[in-house]
Amino acid sequence: MQYRTDPKSGNRLSVLGYGCMRFTRRGGMIDQAKAEKEMAYAIEQGVNYFDTAYIYPGNETAVGKFLAKGYRDKVYLATKLPHYLVKNIEGAEKMFREELRRLQTDHIDYYLMHMLTDIGGWERMCAMGIREWIAEKKASGQIRQIGFSYHGGTQGFLQILKAYDWEFCQIQFNYMDEHSQAGLTGLKAAAEMGMPVIIMEPLRGGRLAGGLPKPAAEIFQESGYDRSPAEWGLRWIFDHPEVSVVLSGMNAMEQIEENVRIAEEAQPGCMSQEEQAVISKVREKIAEVTKVPCTGCGYCMPCPAGVDIPVCFRCYNVRFSDGWFNGIREYFMCTTLRNNQTNASKCVGCGRCEKHCPQSIPIRKELKNVAKTMERLPYKIARKVAKIVKF
């Protein structure tokens, strides 16, 4: 495993971090035994940065149970304060104490203000007294390093960088987001300030691994390189010397094995001009067919009207990347063949979801497009048949 030294703390961080958002679930509950086996294996392979969050259902508790079995001192633990749920500093304190309880620890190594989207969110927290609260927690040792995760435009990111003496930051960065969100400009700016940069969504929630449109996947297959789409995506990120840690939401041993190998081999500057050209061609093909840039993070959920928003968008994109039949079939199976249907036409236009979308997707507008495209006559007929046979 390769490591990068955090210039702010001196910590040696593994270049591959464990994103704890996507643990395997059984019946809606995290498969604790499977998750623990995977996390233990990752640590054995040298992974020492683990990332979770207050709002990830059950994840902090799952991580805490695992770390309590003798692993806490083997990792740097990161979690987050959902500032958008905080009404006052007492609320922040309550959430923080709950996180310590869930994680079964007395301190957080890397603590983030979760999902800032512009300077306004930070200014609101400052008005509540968050600066003083952070200073108190750092003085007590309960928070070791303070940072923020970001989903917004480049200029907003640069403003937040300069608004406080941050010790690290976390941004979405992949070959499809090189010039969106904080982007390459933000990555370089943070690195120039001596700040470790943690990368999230390196494969856009898996879409750049197993969800590529066929024309894009064929470019990789015909490139002459024996690599999976996931390896292409991760190598592209590791090529940037400004990157400190790349988070991967691993939930299978095969994923961990592959990602560890890539993290051991890929170096800054490892991508040749020929390889960069392959990525450029793939990027063009993906852009041609992707209708909604949803990563499946689920921050928009739950929907008060019962719409499964990430699933609707995923199936909608499949309709254009993998063909009409595959898209409609997946949409029908995932939204309609269930006790409580979750299809796009259930949207009532309340807009609650849009306040939480890291990608700033006009969700209500796109759900109308999904319903219009996916819920045509063949879908309606299948839906009636399903009711008759009581699926």
UniProtKB/TrEMBL annotation:
Gene3D superfamilies, per database record: NADP-dependent oxidoreductase domain (3.20.20.100)
This protein's record includes keyword Metal-binding: yes
CDD domains: AKR_Fe-S_oxidoreductase (cd19096)
Gene Ontology MF term list: iron-sulfur cluster binding; metal ion binding; oxidoreductase activity
Alphabetized PROSITE patterns for the sequence: 4FE4S_FER_1, 4FE4S_FER_2
Keywords: Iron, Iron-sulfur, Metal-binding
Record domain 4Fe-4S ferredoxin-type: where: 338-366
Highest taxon, organism lineage: Bacteria
Name of protein: Aldo/keto reductase
Lineage, highest ranks first: Bacteria, Bacillati, Bacillota, Clostridia, Eubacteriales
